[in-house]
């Protein structure tokens, strides 16, 4: 099946972002995409100072638009971190997924908050305004089961391993790495998660905006279970397409059967919630 990643140029105007995102979903659908993914923070600037201002409840304006366009285009739509979600007085970094009938199939709240301090490079603390999610998020399609993470979640291999154990063959990470972590780890982490678990990994970023307070790396990418980059954008706004070949995935798992060769008598990883 065809997967499309929308590397959107995000502005400070929520309505413009929503309109542009929906237009690109329609474009991707017209070109045959069956699963379409938007980037982290696609409808607001990325930064702790913006989260409260742009926050919405779910369902709300942004998720309603995503539901409508998913149904109109008959696609599975991964809504990036569509919005900072407000719920019970707390804010979450939340990704929603809608099916071809417009129904919400999953709601993933970012599990690992992005709190880093690299001297002379970047300091960022999502926990100043956001609360963490406490659950794994998966959804079924007629093609395969899909596991969800958001950006920093990709750095925690245990999460991807749980998804693999649960039968996921594609992992999607809306993300927004920066100009420090992006060149060093963006592609490396995707290739690592793909090879470790013999799955496809897709990570979709906003386009780079040099004038933004937080400058995203871009380079939305799809990696196959062999660890090969099969599609990649540059820094500018773009839609990239790739065929997710589940036959190839099955062949790789047969040739190198690591999933059946794990020493579960010696070690294991479990999902607690």
TrEMBL record:
Enzyme class name: hydrolase
Keyword Hydrolase: yes
PROSITE patterns in alphabetical order: CN_HYDROLASE (PS50263), UPF0012 (PS01227)
SUPFAM superfamilies linked to this entry: Carbon-nitrogen hydrolase
Family: Belongs to the carbon-nitrogen hydrolase superfamily. NIT1/NIT2 family.
Gene that produces this protein: Nit2
Protein name: omega-amidase
Reaction equations catalysed: 2-oxosuccinamate + H2O = oxaloacetate + NH4(+); 2-oxoglutaramate + H2O = 2-oxoglutarate + NH4(+)
Any one Gene Ontology BP term: glutamine metabolic process
Keyword presence, rRNA-binding: no
Molecular function GO labels: omega-amidase activity
GO (cellular component) term, any one: mitochondrion
Residue ranges occupied by any CN hydrolase domain in the UniProt entry: 1-246
Stored PANTHER family: NITRILASE-RELATED (PTHR23088), OMEGA-AMIDASE NIT2 (PTHR23088:SF30)
Superkingdom of the organism of origin: Eukaryota
Keywords: Hydrolase
EC annotation from Swiss-Prot or TrEMBL: 3.5.1.3
